[in-house]
């Protein structure tokens, strides 16, 4: 959960051989890098981050990271709730924090963290 206009990051950490490729989705729509400027996708070896610098209410919903390599496909889904702007005193932290993780044997480990 985050407040409207507060930055949010959805993180996917994974490992596998070869390292899987990750594609992010909002609902059923693929979030392509550079197409929707509200999102930024960052890849740093085994960490894949979807960032929204100024989330709006319409960005609430289901986000899915789909990871693929030659051994198969796995996905992790989380729900982001963007609430109306809170007064500054009511939101002392710059980032919301919800963690979700899962272990997928054989293919890779993938975790998702909203912070």
Give the arrangement of secondary structure elements:
Elements: E1 2-3, E2 8-15, E3 21-26, E4 29-30, E5 39-44, E6 47-52, E7 61-69, E8 72-80, E9 82-83, E10 98-104, E11 108-114
Parallel strand pairs: 1-9
Antiparallel strand pairs: 2-6, 2-11, 3-4, 3-7, 5-6, 7-8, 10-11
Write a structural description.
The structure is a single chain. The protein is mainly β. It has one domain: Immunoglobulins (Immunoglobulin-like, Sandwich), CATH 2.60.40. It has no helices and 11 strands. Strands 5-6-2-11-10 form a 5-stranded antiparallel beta sheet, with no helix packed on it. It has a 4-stranded antiparallel beta sheet with strand order 4-3-7-8, with no helix packed on it. Strands 1-9 form a two-stranded parallel sheet. Strand 3 (21-26) and strand 4 form a beta hairpin. The N and C termini lie close together (9 Å). Mean pLDDT is 77; it is low at 89-115.
Instruction: Summarize the main sheet.
Output: 5 strands, antiparallel
Please indicate the count of domains. Answer: 1
Structural shape: elongated
Give the spatial strand order of the biggest sheet. Answer: 5-6-2-11-10
List keywords for this structure.
115 residues; mainly beta; Immunoglobulin-like; four-stranded antiparallel beta sheet; 0% helix; 56% strand; disordered C terminus
Summarize the structure.
The chain is mainly β and 115 residues long. It has strands at residues 2-3, 8-15, 21-26, 29-30, 39-44, 47-52, 61-69, 72-80, 82-83, 98-104, 108-114.
């Amino acid at each position: 959960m985050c407040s409207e206009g507060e930055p949010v990051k959805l993180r996917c950490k994974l490992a596998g051989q070869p390292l899987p490729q990750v594609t992010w989705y909002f609902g059923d729509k693929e979030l392509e890098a550079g197409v929707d400027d509200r999102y930024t996708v960052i890849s740093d070896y085994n960490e894949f981050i979807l960032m929204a610098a100024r989330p709006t209410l319409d960005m609430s919903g289901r986000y899915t990271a789909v990871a693929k390599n030659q051994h198969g496909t796995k996905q992790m889904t989380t729900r982001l709730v963007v609430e109306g702007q809170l007064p500054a005193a009511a939101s002392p932290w710059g980032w919301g924090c919800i963690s979700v993780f899962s272990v997928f044997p054989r293919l890779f480990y993938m975790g998702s963290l909203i912070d």
